[in-house]
Amino acid sequence: MTQQLSFLATCPVGLGPLLLEELAALGALSLRETPSGVYFTGPLAVAYRACLWSRLANRVLVRISETAVSNAAAPQAADALKFSPEYLQKFGVVDRVISEPMGGAHRDFDLAAKALKDAIVDSLAKLKKKSTKKLLEDRYKKFRHLGEFAETETSAKA
pTM of whole model > 0.85? Predict the structure, then answer.
């Protein structure tokens, strides 16, 4: 059985009722509207769907704990979420991680733009080699598996 998590999807003030309907259609459970967002529960796959397909949600926040997390423990809590670029690529949420220039993209716009352009050109070249049918099959397979969790021997021992 998949783990049920608690989330908050934020939205512009006044759009809460519409966001609630959108999240319900995406499979969210226990929906509770606020003026600027919707609290909901569901497996991680529902949060991914909300991030990918919601037209109204600004962001989707996950409740990681009911207790306060100290600044010292924050890195471990973030790692437990497995929401780093490396994990997102490993789990198939993103196709590629593009490295930033030293110090961040805001420090060297030209280098960041070149890295992004190279990644886009490379990805489009790979996609052009596939038939439309194959592209659709791959996309369907990718999005159907988002949020799946399978325990392995390694993760069971941890």
Answer: no
